[in-house]
Amino acid sequence: MLSDRRRSTAGERVYKMPTVLAAIVALLSACSSESLPEPEPEVHHAGAFFAVGKPELALYRTLKALRIEGDTILFTTLYDVVPANFDEAREMAKRPSLPIRQELVSASEVLLLRQSVRVVWFRTLTKAEQDRSP
């Protein structure tokens, strides 16, 4: 009898083990930073490059966003480039450095979004860019 009980317990362990392992693997993969989709950057996210305008585009980078009464004031850098389209703006934004036309420009997000605007790239701000924001 005792041996039957041991076999039964051992058999249960064998059947339960794959379930436990599968649960552990699922849990570990859920914790992986690669498994979570990154949120799409928006104009008000610090570090976002966005192009605005029509027909000529201007390329900006958000340094800081300040939320106030129904609007957000964006503090941005305006680059001294004129991309022909949004794809070209994306390629320019990927460069490690760009010539700056104006270091600090402020704008209303509400008014900005009434124009043709698109976030084309994102990367975290450098120390120098953080220091430039108010």
**Arithmetic mean pLDDT:** 83
Shape: globular
Total beta strands: 5
Tell me the strand order in the biggest sheet. 4-3-2-1-5
Query: How large is the radius of gyration?
Result: 26 Å
Q: Quick one: biggest sheet?
A: 5 strands, antiparallel
Comma- or semicolon-separated keywords:
alpha+beta, 2 domains, 134 residues
Helix-strand blueprint:
Layout: H1 2-31, E1 48-52, E2 58-68, E3 71-79, H2 86-93, E4 100-108, H3 109-112, E5 117-122, H4 127-132
Antiparallel strand pairs: 1-2, 1-5, 2-3, 3-4
Could you please describe the fold and organization of this structure?
With 134 residues, the chain is an alpha+beta fold. The protein has two domains: 1-36; 48-132, no CATH class. It is built from four helices and five strands; from the N terminus they run αβββαβαβα. It has helices spanning 2-31, 86-93, 109-112, 127-132; strands at residues 48-52, 58-68, 71-79, 100-108, 117-122. A five-stranded antiparallel β-sheet has the order 4-3-2-1-5. The model is unreliable at 1-5 (pLDDT under 50).
Please give a quick description of this structure.
The chain has 134 residues and is of the alpha+beta class. It is built from four helices and five strands.
